Structures are given as structure tokens and as C-alpha cells.
């Protein structure tokens, strides 16, 4: 038998456990508290002003009073432009990556690498790029179109990534099954793969919308600051987020208006992002039930 | 009755007595059942596990052997919704299932080795330092302790030159012996093995089996195994688990010799002869 | 057809870099790039003595990013440990939901709130300053990246193999030692990845910072000094910049992109290193 080794009394570090619990609880409370504080402040300042006339009215006195009607329309139009480009581009790219090239091939690695790098580009840089590429080279100037297309470039990686993972999560026997039925590749993609991957694509689009709604820096040099009602995609139009930026930076005594605008924006994003979470949970559950 | 005999104060009064360290403990189980929420996995267990002997638990898959084994050092606590009823008593009177029992020092006294080797993905040395420090070994005593147990499991000559290297770089068999050494380092009185060889290749499995056999007489060993030949080779006593009315229980137990050659229970007999299970 | 779309998507980043580069070209051609790092002041529009020193802005960008991570990491990590090992599962689930929503809060809202609330608090702390300072920017930026760090840390702790925790329990190790010596070392990689992600996000962030940083192009001597990071400079000056001034801003943007690309490249390299089974992409 081994000789007994000297052993001090057991020092079960109860104090360490207590300290960790205390630090953890403090940190959890602190982060919750800070965000609650932020939301409370916005609600306190912004909520009283929100009404139907605020949501539909024109901006008055440089934004110190009036409503945000034109901004909502501009924001919506920017989103339309953005989605019109990003949906075909993103799903197309993801389809190509999952159906037409071998995973891990050089071409696939280059494209996914490019998309991942794109995700790392700071949003202000997208703004500069949009300004010179869409605004000047493609002669769109400061316009809703220019802003929307810039945002499309920015949220492209989100859509590619979610669509790709949706396609990769499809049952592996779907493809040989469709080939066995003698379906052409196009038919199989349009009739089988895309419908099956649709939930994932929709979640990706929803997440992208959330990201686009919250963006400011990419828009200040592309869609611009105009506060008039936009009459076409070629007009300049101010997004909600840009309005908050402009009020805070340039218009004194506009804190309440900025709070109201921020509150509306937050509510929109909350709805969009909760929809994304709910949708993906719903579809996940259904997949588990059927399989 | 001193049902909380394993309190921290008690240990503190006998800092280096070594009293219970060199002596293997026996376990006496009575009326034990293990429940997962509404489901009863194991029930009606009465079993004496004598000190210093090797007790093998055999039986088909899913009959509750592992649940029972894990209840012996309260690892069942980790599973949400798992509840253990009945009594497990160590020879010094400690009641394992009592809620006030100090679970951490209980687990030091009743060590466990799992099916898959699970060294921490850190250096070999850290694998000993972490648990030894937790149980109060002084830092300067740790290298000696580590060397002693690594020699006991026959690893010292193989790995003494790379104690600073990651433990997961070792082969499966070496990892499992490292895990046994790690459990032995804490000077347990009982050591539980949960199918310790089933994830290993035949040669490594033989080495580990010999190692377990060598513990006989110094420690109380309880081993769950699917390998009946292995159980025959190393066990002093055996208990056969079987599912009866949806609940796992022991249908036959006693000296290994008798259980394996002349089982009285028909289920056990057909299982041991290879006809069922 | 689809290949073309993929080419556009994959090549977009090259297009961006190319446009930045071609617009920054006048500076590079004029041989002014050196001035970028040797000039001590930033007064690109001055007629008499134009100076293009961008060092103070780079320093500001680094400082504010590092401080933000230094503030957010302990809070985020400790919170994640709490929710993983101490809090009931229900709380953990709700906390994760809250964090996922908070990641979506627009950075301009953080900036606005920071100006309204944090800046006045700092003025109370240091009465003779404007409050718009390195400290204010770090706090606001830290708040913005807190959900990222908290979520990635929580996911990393969640991914610690149960066998490791079981091994620790089997050795009679308490919760504290298990967290400290087993779970945190095992989750180190994931937590590090989250920090890198947060760094990349923070250094490129404009809106959370521009409203509260004070916009003074200088190397700060104290936490209460105003600063002006690269992103803020671009946002504030591009509107009226012309000629070489504009090219300079593009040059700054290029540096920024290279920097974040390096961070993210390192990140994916680390990922490939740590799980070679997934094979590259």
C-alpha cells in the first residue's frame, strides 16, 4: 500500500463559490438593469408623444415637432430596394454553394471566404462604397435606391449564411430521390429544394430586415437626409435611424422627438426579430415532429 | 445515529490521521430505488458490498446497472428530475443518500471511472492538480502523489517525460489508466467502474482489467460490465440485474463462483448461459 | 447563372476594397501616405499648413475598443457563468431571449442614450469637462457589445462536454472549482472567438461612438479627454470633404477594413485550427 501522504484539511472553497455566485448575479443584474434603464428612459421621454398624427405627420421645425410620416415611408422604400437585390443574390449564391460545387472545393472556399470577409466590413465603409459606387459610378446620387442597394450588400452575408445552413440541413436523401424520379436539376431546385428550405430563407430575410432597419452609418452618405415625402426610388429619403442621428447631432432641444423616433424604431425591430425567433422555433419544432 | 458522519468538521479534526484512507469501506444497500420523474428505473435493491472485494454488476442493457452505480456516490444528483430513495450505508455509518451528507468528500471516498476516458483536456499534471487541490492536498505534496499513482497504474515510465503535455494526446487505454490514477490519487475507499473497458481495444482492455484486478484487497471495487468473461475472471462477488415489471432489479447475487456456475434464478441462468439478454 | 450570382456575392468585398483603393489613390500617388503616420495634427483643409496625421485617430479607435471590451468582458462572462451554473434554466432561457433582442438594438440608439444619460453622469464626475470623452465612448460601446460577448460566452459554456463536468463531479469537485478549472478552460476558445467578434464589431462601430466621443482629434491623456476615432472622422467629414481630404478619408477607411479583415481572418483561421474535421470553409 502506498504510504499515506500528508494532507491538509479539506479546503472546499465555499468562499470561491459564494464569490462567483455573487459576481455572476451582480453582472447579470447589472446588464439587465442597464438595458432596462435604456428602455425606460426612451419610454418615459418618447411614449407620451406617440400617436397616429405622430406616425403620419410631416416633420416640422427641423424635427423639434411634427411627426415622422415621410421617414416611415422612406424607410419602407429603402427596405424594398434592399430586399429586391439581396433575396435573389443571397439565395442564388447559397444555392450555388450547396448544389453546384463540392463543399470544400477551391471555388466554394473562395466565395464563402469572400462572404465572411464582407460580414466583417464596418458599416461606415459600406456607406463610403455605396456613395461612390451606386451614387457616382451608377449615377443614382443620394437616393432611396442607392441606400437600399448599399444595405443589400451589407446584409448579404446574413442571408447567404442562413440560406446555406437551411439547405445543408435538408435530408440528404432528398437529392438522390429527385434524381431518381428523373427530375431536371432546375425542377428539383425550384419544386423541391427551395420550398423545403423556405423556412430558413424566411428567417434569414427577417434577420436581415432587422439589421437593415437598425443601420445608420451606411445610409448617411447614400440615401441622404431629405425629409420630404419620397415620390420615387430616385428621391433622397431619410431613414428612421438617420433621423435619430441627425436630431442628436444637429438639432438642440430635440431629445423627446429622438426618443419617440427611437421607440418606434425599437418597436419595429422588436417585432421583426421576435418574428424571426418565433418562426425559426416554430419550424424547428415542426421538423422534429415530422422526422 | 450519526447519519452525517462525513461532515467537514469531522475531517478537520483528523487532518492526516490516514485512518479511513488505508482501509477499504464496505457498502450496504437496502430498499434502494432510483426514479426519473415518474419513471422508476431501479427498485427493490438490497445488496451487501464487502470491503476489499470486487463486486461485478452484470445484466442486459437498460436494466439500471449504471443508474444504480451512479447512485452509490450521488452522481445521480447531476441529472435533473432524478430521485433516489432507500439507504446506502458506508461501513463508518455514513448514509450516502442523506441530504445533509457532504457530497464532495463522499465522492472523494467513493471514486468513479467512466466508460469513456474523460481526462480534462489540459496537461497531465493539471489533471492531478485540480482535484487534489480541491481536496486539500498541499501543492508541494502533489508531484509525489501523482508519481505514486501513475506508477501504480503503470503509466509512469510511459509518460513521465511529458507531464506538461495535453492528456488528450494519450491513447485511449492510456487515458483510461490516467483516469483511474486520477481517481486513486484522492485515496478513495471504494472505486466504481462503469464499463471501464468497453470503449477500449482488446489489448488496452486487458491492461485495464489487470489493473482493476490488482486493486483487489486494498479497495472495494464495484464494476459494471457487459463482458461476462471479464466478470468471471476478476469478480469475487456478482449481482445479476434484470428488468421485472418494467423496473430494473437484482435477481441473483452472491459469490461469483456460485452465481456464474449455479444460478438459481431462471432469468439469470438464461442470461448467464447466453440464451437471453 | 447561379455561378454569376455567387461570383457577385463572393466578389463584393473585392469590389469594395477596389473602390476604396481607387478613391484613396490620389493620396498614395502624391506620396502623402507617409504623412499619414508622421504628421502630428489632423487639419487636412488648412491652406497654409495642411497636416494629415491619422495616428491620434487610430490610437483613439484602439483605446476605445479595448476599453469597451475590458468593460464588457467581465460583466458578460460573469453573467454567462451565473446563468449557466447558478440560475434556474427558465431564467437562462429568458436571459438568452433578451440578449438576442438586445443585439438588434440600433447602435445609434445607444449613442443617443449615451449622450442623454451617460455624458451628464460623467460631467457630474468631472465637472470641468464636456463629458463627451474616451470614457463615455467606451461605456456606450461596451454596452453595445455586451450582448455579443454574453451570448457567445454562454454558448461556449453550454458547449463544454458533459463528460468533462461529470468527470469533475466524479472527483468530488465543487461548483466553483469545476467552473474555474474545468469549464472556463474548456470554453476558452469560444469565449476568445466572441471577444474577437466583439473587437471587430467595436472597432468598426460609428454611431454608438460619434455622438459621445467629443470629436477632438488628439491622443487622450485621461479618460475624460475627448477623442475622435477613425469611424467618427469619416462620418463627420465625408459630407463636405473634397479632393485630397476625401482621398484621405478613403485611405482611413481602407486601413479600417484591412484591420477588421485581419481580425476576422484570424478568427476563422483559429476555427479551422481547432476543429480540423470540418475541413476549411
Please describe what this structure looks like.
The complex is a heterotrimer of chains A (291), B (277) and C (281). Chain A contains 10 helices and 2 strands; from the N terminus they run H-H-E-E-H-H-H-H-H-H-H-H. Chain A has 291 residues and is mostly helical. Chain A has a domain at 72-239: MetI-like fold (Orthogonal Bundle). Chain A has a two-stranded antiparallel ribbon. Residues 1-11 of chain A have low confidence and may be disordered. By secondary structure, chain B is an alpha/beta fold. The longest helix of chain B is centred in the middle third of the chain and has 14 residues, at 172-185. Chain B is globular and about 55 Å long. The N and C termini of chain B lie far apart (42 Å). With 281 residues, chain C is mainly alpha-helical. Chain C has a single domain (23-43, 51-274), classed as Orthogonal Bundle (MetI-like fold), CATH 1.10.3720. Chain C is built from 11 helices and 2 strands. Mean pLDDT of chain C is 86; it is low at 275-281. Chains in contact: A-B, A-C, B-C. Chains A and C meet through helix 1, helix 3, helix 4, helix 5 and helix 6 of A and helix 1, helix 3, helix 4, helix 5 and helix 6 of C.
Give helix and strand order of chain C, one letter per element, not per position: HHEEHHHHHHHHH
**Oligomeric nature of the chains:** heterotrimer
Rg of chain C computed from alpha carbons, rounded to a whole number of angstroms: 22 Å
Discrete helix count of chain B: 11
What distance separates the N and C termini of chain B? 42 Å
Terminal Cα span of chain C = 23 Å
Classified by CATH, the class of chain C is Mainly Alpha
- Count of extended strands of chain B: 9
The residue fraction in helices of chain B comes out at: 25-40%
Largest sheet of chain C: 2 strands, antiparallel
Number of domains of chain C: 1
How would you sum up the global shape of chain B? globular
Helix content of chain C: over 70%
Global shape of chain C: globular
Poorly predicted segments of chain C = 275-281
Overall average pLDDT of chain C = 86
Amino acid at each position: 500500500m502506498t504510504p499515506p501522504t500528508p494532507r491538509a484539511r479539506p479546503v472546499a472553497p465555499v468562499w470561491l463559490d459564494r464569490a462567483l455566485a455573487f459576481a455572476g448575479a451582480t453582472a447579470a443584474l447589472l446588464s439587465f438593469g442597464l438595458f432596462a434603464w435604456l428602455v425606460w428612459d426612451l419610454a418615459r421621454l418618447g411614449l407620451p408623444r406617440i400617436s397616429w398624427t405622430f406616425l403620419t405627420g410631416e416633420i416640422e421645425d427641423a424635427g423639434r415637432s411634427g411627426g415622422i410620416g415621410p421617414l416611415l415611408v422612406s424607410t419602407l422604400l429603402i427596405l424594398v430596394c434592399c430586399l429586391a437585390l439581396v433575396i435573389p443574390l443571397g439565395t442564388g449564391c447559397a444555392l450555388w454553394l450547396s448544389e453546384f460545387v463540392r463543399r470544400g472545393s477551391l471555388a466554394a472556399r473562395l466565395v464563402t471566404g469572400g462572404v465572411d470577409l464582407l460580414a466583417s466590413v464596418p458599416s461606415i465603409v459600406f456607406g463610403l462604397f455605396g456613395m461612390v459606387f451606386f451614387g457616382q459610378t451608377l449615377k443614382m446620387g443620394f437616393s432611396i435606391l442607392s441606400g437600399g442597394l448599399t444595405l443589400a450588400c451589407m446584409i448579404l452575408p446574413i442571408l447567404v449564411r442562413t440560406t446555406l445552413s437551411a439547405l445543408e440541413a435538408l435530408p440528404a436523401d432528398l437529392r438522390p430521390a429527385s434524381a431518381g424520379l428523373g427530375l431536371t436539376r432546375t425542377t428539383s431546385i425550384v419544386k423541391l429544394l427551395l420550398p423545403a428550405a423556405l423556412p430558413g430563407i424566411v428567417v434569414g430575410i427577417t434577420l436581415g430586415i432587422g439589421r437593415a432597419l437598425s443601420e445608420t452609418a451606411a445610409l448617411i452618405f447614400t440615401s441622404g437626409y431629405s425629409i420630404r415625402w419620397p415620390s420615387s426610388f430616385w428621391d433622397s429619403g431619410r431613414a428612421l435611424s438617420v433621423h435619430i442621428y441627425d436630431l442628436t447631432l444637429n438639432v438642440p432641444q430635440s431629445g423627446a422627438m429622438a426618443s419617440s423616433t427611437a421607440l418606434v424604431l425599437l418597436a419595429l425591430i422588436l417585432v421583426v426579430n421576435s418574428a424571426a425567433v418565433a418562426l425559426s422555433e416554430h419550424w424547428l419544432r415542426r421538423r422534429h415532429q415530422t422526422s | 445515529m450519526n447519519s452525517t458522519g462525513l461532515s467537514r468538521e469531522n475531517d478537520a479534526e483528523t487532518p492526516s490521521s490516514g485512518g479511513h484512507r488505508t482501509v477499504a469501506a464496505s457498502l450496504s444497500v437496502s430498499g434502494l430505488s432510483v426514479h426519473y420523474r415518474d419513471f422508476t428505473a431501479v427498485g427493490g435493491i438490497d445488496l451487501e458490498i464487502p470491503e476489499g472485494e470486487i463486486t461485478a454488476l452484470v445484466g442486459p442493457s437498460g436494466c439500471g446497472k449504471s443508474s444504480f452505480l451512479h447512485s452509490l456516490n450521488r452522481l445521480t444528483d447531476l441529472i435533473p428530475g432524478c430521485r433516489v430513495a432507500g439507504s446506502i450505508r458506508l461501513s463508518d455509518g455514513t448514509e450516502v443518500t442523506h441530504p445533509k451528507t457532504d457530497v464532495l468528500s463522499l465522492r472523494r471516498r467513493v471514486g468513479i471511472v467512466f466508460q469513456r476516458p474523460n481526462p480534462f483536456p489540459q496537461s497531465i499534471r493539471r489533471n492531478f492538480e485540480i482535484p487534489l487541490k480541491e481536496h486539500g492536498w498541499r501543492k508541494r505534496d502533489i508531484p509525489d502523489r501523482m508519481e505514486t499513482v501513475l506508477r501504480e497504474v503503470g503509466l509512469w515510465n510511459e509518460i513521465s517525460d511529458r507531464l506538461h503535455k495535453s492528456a488528450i494526446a494519450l491513447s485511449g487505454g492510456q487515458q483510461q489508466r490516467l483516469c483511474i490514477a486520477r481517481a486513486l490519487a484522492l485515496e478513495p475507499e471504494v472505486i466504481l467502474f462503469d464499463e471501464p473497458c468497453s470503449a477500449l481495444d482488446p489489448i488496452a482492455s486487458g491492461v485495464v482489467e489487470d489493473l482493476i484486478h490488482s486493486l483487489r484487497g486494498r479497495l472495494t471495487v464495484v464494476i459494471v460490465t457487459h463482458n461476462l468473461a471479464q466478470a468471471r475472471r476478476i469478480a469475487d462477488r456478482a449481482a445479476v440485474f434484470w428488468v421485472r415489471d418494467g423496473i430494473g432489479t437484482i435477481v441473483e447475487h452472491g459469490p461469483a463462483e456460485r452465481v456464474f456456475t449455479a444460478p438459481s434464478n431462471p432469468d439469470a441462468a438464461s442470461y448467464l448461459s447466453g440464451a437471453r439478454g | 447563372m447561379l455561378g454569376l450570382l455567387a461570383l457577385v456575392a463572393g466578389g463584393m468585398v473585392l469590389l469594395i476594397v477596389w473602390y476604396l483603393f481607387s478613391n484613396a489613390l490620389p493620396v498614395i500617388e502624391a506620396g502623402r501616405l507617409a504623412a499619414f503616420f508622421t504628421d502630428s495634427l489632423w487639419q487636412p483643409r488648412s491652406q497654409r499648413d495642411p497636416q494629415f496625421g491619422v495616428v491620434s485617430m487610430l490610437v483613439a479607435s484602439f483605446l476605445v475598443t479595448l476599453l469597451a471590451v475590458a468593460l464588457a468582458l467581465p460583466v458578460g462572462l460573469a453573467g454567462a457563468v451565473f446563468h449557466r451554473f447558478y440560475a434556474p434554466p427558465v431564467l437562462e432561457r429568458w436571459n438568452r431571449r433578451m440578449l438576442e433582442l438586445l443585439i438588434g438594438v440600433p447602435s445609434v440608439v445607444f449613442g443617443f442614450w449615451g449622450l442623454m444619460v451617460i455624458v451628464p453622469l460623467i460631467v457630474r464626475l468631472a465637472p470641468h469637462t464636456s463629458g463627451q470623452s474616451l470614457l463615455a465612448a467606451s461605456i456606450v460601446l461596451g454596452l453595445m457589445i455586451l450582448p455579443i460577448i454574453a451570448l457567445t460566452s454562454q454558448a461556449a459554456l453550454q458547449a463544454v462536454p458533459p463528460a468533462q463536468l461529470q468527470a469533475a463531479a466524479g472527483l468530488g469537485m465543487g461548483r466553483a472549482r469545476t467552473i474555474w478549472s474545468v469549464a472556463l478552460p474548456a470554453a476558452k476558445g469560444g469565449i476568445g472567438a466572441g471577444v474577437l467578434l466583439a473587437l471587430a464589431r467595436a472597432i468598426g462601430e460609428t454611431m454608438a461612438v460619434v455622438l459621445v466621443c467629443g470629436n477632438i482629434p488628439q491622443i487622450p491623456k485621461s479618460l475624460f479627454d475627448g477623442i475622435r476615432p477613425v469611424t467618427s472622422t469619416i462620418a463627420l467629414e465625408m459630407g463636405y470633404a473634397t479632393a485630397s481630404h476625401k482621398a484621405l478619408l478613403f485611405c482611413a477607411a481602407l486601413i479600417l477594413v484591412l484591420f477588421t479583415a485581419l481580425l476576422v481572418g484570424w478568427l476563422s483561421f483559429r476555427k479551422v485550427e481547432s476543429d480540423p474535421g470540418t475541413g476549411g470553409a
